[in-house]
Amino acid sequence: MKIDIAVLPGDGIGAEVVAAAMAVLEKVASMSGHQLNPVYADVGWAAIDKHGTALPEATREICRKSRAILFGAVGLPDRDKTLPQAQRPERVALLELRKGLFANLRHVVLPPGLANRCPLKTELISAGIDIMIIRELTGGLYYGKPQGISGPPGTRVAVDTMAYSEAEIERILKIGFETALKRRRRLTSVDKANILATSQLWRETAIRMAKDYPDVTVEHMYVDNASMQLLRRPTEFDVIVTENTFGDILSDEASMLCGSIGLVPSACLGIPGGAVPFYEPIHGSAPDIAGQNKANPIGTILTVAMMLRYTFGLEPDAKMIEKAAFEVLNGGKTLTGDLGGTAGCTQVADAVMAAL
Ligand code: IPM
Ligand code: MG
Questions:
Q1: CATH of the domain at 319
Q2: Active-site choice (49, 224, 288, 323)
Q3: Domain ends where: 258, 281, 297?
Q4: What pLDDT sits at residue 257?
């Protein structure tokens, strides 16, 4: 199979983790006889410095011609501060490339060998943690209009708008139900229906759709309660589906259940033939450890596995990568600093390649 992808390493540790994941992908492609055609492009500060914008037209064009985008991270807080918000890399590049990709799948798995890295007590996690968080990604507060700050200093007013149409809610819930069917058949729909109108529509829609999925056990949970239950009974969650901002927050919280945000991969998906699917680890650019071979590449390596699964339909190759990555994690010998180890990013990638 031809694997035509755009590769956008970006800022901070983006370059290192993407290089590590690409090395793994190259090996898998050659083992399975796939033709890998990566086209590298600038994004974030790397692009601002060369082309004056975080998302140059040349990069967009490369993305448009690809079947998937592999993305590292963008943003450097010290430099971001020098730009108005509307020109910062997160907005110009990240939110732009995610447009049209309404389903953000973030997979949180605690490798059994790393149970000691989970901040929760052993008895709370002995049944294992494997949660698929499905975050709505193109609606809600991030894109709702009106948005902005207006008025004279001292009496300024800021507005963000949370809006969801029934169609937007339905399409993300559908992904939730269908994902649950392929997993342990439990779906937790998270909202704030006791207060928010968007959540009332969300819950009504979820209750109606649940009738079409009699094999899925559905639980409706307020977001504040969900943030507590994730710590109280994390092993009972299978698939969580929720709106944009709630999903952003809950996925960071959940990532700590597996010991490090550096382990969590993600996929941003839309409709077939629509916006180009976008794959990124959920961690950011971590400038404090950038360029020191300290970053954990596992999140990006697992992101490549998601890309092979969801865009290229290469389930066996995806599984092969996941198996190798978890073997390294469970082995406990080659771990980066975030997991209490001393290995470098390149060593972890080498260990994963050796385990393939
Ligand atoms: C994430 C990040 C982004 C988001 C920011 C950087 C815009 O927090 O990917 O979770 O909120 O989506
Ligand atoms: Mg986030």
A1: 3.40.718.10
A2: 224
A3: 258
A4: 96
Please confirm, yes or no, whether 252 is among the known catalytic residues: yes
Distance of alpha carbon 307 from alpha carbon 109, whole angstroms = 17
Question: Who contacts 143 (Cβ-Cβ below 8 Å, separation ≥6)?
Answer: 95
Question: Both 244 and 287 in a single domain?
Answer: no
pLDDT given at position 81 = 97
Domain limits at 85? 1-114+259-356
Mean pLDDT of 178-201: 98
Measured in angstroms, how far is the CA atom of residue 308 from the centroid of ligand 1?
23
Give the β-pairing of 130-136 and 103-109.
antiparallel
In the reported structure, the alpha carbon of residue 254 is separated from the centroid of ligand 2 by a whole-number distance in angstroms of: 11
Instruction: Evaluate if pTM is beyond 0.70.
Output: yes
Range 330-337 average pLDDT: 98
Q: Are residues 266 and 248 in the same domain?
A: no
231: pLDDT confidence band, cut at 50, 70 and 90? very high
Q: What is the mean pLDDT of the chain?
A: 97
* Number of CB atoms found within 10 A of residue 88's CB: 24
Q: 64 vs 2, 11, 69, CA distance in Å? A: 16, 21, 9
Instruction: Tally Cβ neighbours within 10 Å of residue 277.
Output: 23
